[in-house]
Design goal:
Blueprint lengths: L1 H9 L4 H63 L2 E12 L5 E15 L2
Antiparallel strand pairs: 1-2
């Protein structure tokens, strides 16, 4: 009991502590606002990138379809059959799993009978 009373008696009023606390509280609020702004900006950039990727991917698919039609026509002229296909895979060229999808080209030529 005496020890507790001594500790309580030794506590002195320090006005600087409350001022420092308020400063830190304001600083934390400001940093939180910056963090929230950065998250919003990241989401906006991610959506913009998704739109660009979708546009690019549609163009790529159209080009591959065109190449496949021309390739098939050429192969038909030489007595063969063939096509060019593009498909998505979740593995990179080394076979390593990746969180992002990688476009993988599949080229296939078949000889006609």
């Amino acid at each position: 009991m005496d020890e507790a009373e001594n500790k309580v008696s030794s506590i002195t009023d320090n006005p600087h502590v409350m001022r420092q606390y308020e400063e830190r509280k304001k600083e934390i609020a400001k940093l939180q606002e910056q963090l929230d702004g950065a998250d919003e900006e990241k989401d906006i950039k991610k959506k913009q990138l998704e739109v660009k990727l979708t546009t690019w991917e549609a163009s790529l698919i159209n080009i591959v379809d065109s190449v496949s039609q021309k390739f098939s026509a050429y192969m038909k002229e030489v007595g063969c059959a063939g096509e060019v296909r593009l498909f998505k895979a979740n593995r990179d060229a080394r076979g390593v799993d990746d969180e992002e999808e990688n476009l993988v080209y599949n080229f296939k030529v078949r000889q006609s009978m």
